[in-house]
Design brief:
By secondary structure, the chain is α/β, with parallel strands linked by helices. Helices cover 37% and strands 23% of the residues. The termini are far apart. The structure holds zinc ion.
Length: 460
């Protein structure tokens, strides 16, 4: 009999590890935050568990790894959904975000983290404002996170007018803030939190700032996080100034490397993708946002180049099941073939694939002996999931974020009965609701047509 801290029982176990099949009637035993058994249910008496959870109504799978997101960006919910990427960023987000205070970002981060946990996301890779406030919530909530401060040297709100004038002092100040964040938080929360240097995008940082950010990341021994080939405006700017695509440009600056997570690649050329592959830089694919913007990245060409790829949610809609289905549907429509992507591949991209993108695949992303215990339980006892036959498509095509009832991170239960265990979610929601009228007024003043009131579409 072996002493373990937590024993997780499941009707079906999805290990998501090379060569390991789905198992029925399985269990995961956890000691000191790590998996000591993930396989068939052992005979009674094999374990003396401090606690046993799960059972025959649950499927166990690795926690989702969200390798590119902006947890606090929920302030823009419903404000950019009917916009092209350029307009969503230049007309809405960039003009509003400069006026959001650190306390407001902290409010949004708390509700955002609760939403991530409820969706079965156990690891995030975040780049945004007020990173230390997100880190405080992540530490408290029990989530795992790589976090970067958003570094740029333009006036984001001026980009819609084509004004790319560089403010070197602003860039320097934001990079210093990012460095200070890494120095304070990298390795915090028993190693659950790591810092990254986040050069916001290829066009919103000048070449000097890109080089300096790269140098600081190397000095600190941390990775980077960059938006690349995201919008038409970015492409125009880089083409005009550099005469090449944004990834070729980053390669010339010697920024690209295996530790630089690149989000989007939506407008990447062949030469751009070749540069990414040559540098072995990994890619965060945000399948939910692309169809909304009317342009889908050439994922088949990206995977065809063996670029390390994972699924991510980007901003505001953080449902990994939706992300998997969007990737599947988009790929099948793009290539006109139902075998363009499989359910198993989608689930792999959302777990192991995304862990590889973050360089965390030796520790998380699959349920294997020796790995950190990051897993979730999906409740199968739901009308929309039954009858449940236990294949990949049974989960990927039918489950919803709300079906996730338990999330274990580092061996600790961070979500139970579908609610975060260590966050005061009702209080966080109440604070957000109190602030919402203020944001609505601000958005209306900026000309948003997606708020209720005189500007709303139905009222004219
Ligand atoms: Zn993003």
């Amino acid at each position: 009999m072996r002493d373990v801290d937590l024993l997780v029982r499941a009707a079906f176990l999805y290990p998501m590890s090379e060569g390991l099949p789905i198992l029925a009637d399985a269990e995961v035993a956890i000691a000191a935050g790590r998996i000591v058994h993930a396989g068939p249910r052992q005979p009674e008496g094999a374990w003396r568990a401090a606690r046993t959870i799960g059972g025959s109504r649950f499927a166990a799978l690795p926690g989702f790894v969200n390798c590119h997101c902006h947890t606090a960006s929920i302030v823009f919910r419903s404000q950019t959904d009917d916009h092209a990427a350029r307009s969503a960023l230049f007309d809405v987000a960039f003009r509003m975000e400069k006026d959001v205070s650190e306390d407001e970002w902290a409010m949004c981060a708390e509700v955002g983290v609760a939403g991530m946990l409820r969706a079965g996301i156990t690891t995030i890779n975040d780049i945004w404002y007020a990173p230390h406030r997100l880190a405080e919530t992540v530490e408290r909530a029990g989530l795992r996170a790589d976090i970067a401060n958003k570094v740029f040297d333009v006036r984001l709100e001026a980009l819609r007018d084509g004004d790319y004038s560089r403010d070197v002092r602003r860039g320097e100040a934001r990079l210093r803030e990012g460095v200070a964040f890494v120095e304070r938080w990298n390795g915090a929360a028993q190693g659950r939190i790591r810092g990254r240097i986040g050069a916001h995008a290829t066009d919103t940082c000048g070449p000097g700032l890109h080089r300096e950010a790269r140098a600081e990341a190397r000095r600190l021994g941390v990775g980077m996080h960059i938006h690349a080939a995201q919008s038409a405006g970015e492409i125009e700017q880089i083409m005009a100034g550099q005469g090449c695509g944004p990834l070729e440009y980053l390669a010339r600056l010697n920024v690209l490397a295996p530790d630089v997570v690149l989000a989007h690649l939506t407008f990447a050329t062949d030469a751009d993708l070749d540069a990414v592959a040559a540098a072995d830089a990994p890619y965060a694919h945000c399948s939910t946002i692309y169809p909304r913007r009317g342009r889908y990245p050439r994922l088949e060409d990206i995977l065809g180049r063996d670029i390390r790829t994972g699924l991510a949610t980007d901003w505001m809609q953080n449902d990994p099941f939706e992300a998997m289905r969007n990737a599947l549907n988009a790929m099948r429509l793009r290539l006109g073939r139902p075998d363009a992507m499989s359910s198993a591949q989608a689930l792999w991209l959302a777990t192991m694939g995304a862990a590889r993108v973050m360089g965390l695949d030796a520790e998380i992303g699959s349920l294997e002996i020796g790995k950190k215990a990051d897993l979730i339980l999906v409740d199968l006892d739901r009308p929309h999931l039954q009858p449940f036959y236990g294949g990949y498509s049974a989960l990927v095509y039918y489950a919803r974020a709300d079906d996730v009832r338990v999330a274990v991170i580092d061996g600790a239960i961070a979500l139970e009965d579908g609610a975060p265990t260590r966050l005061d979610e009702p209080r966080a929601l109440a604070r957000l609701a109190e602030r919402t009228p203020h944001w609505r007024t601000r958005l209306a003043a900026l000309g948003s047509r997606a708020v209720f009131g005189p500007h709303c579409a139905c009222c004219g």
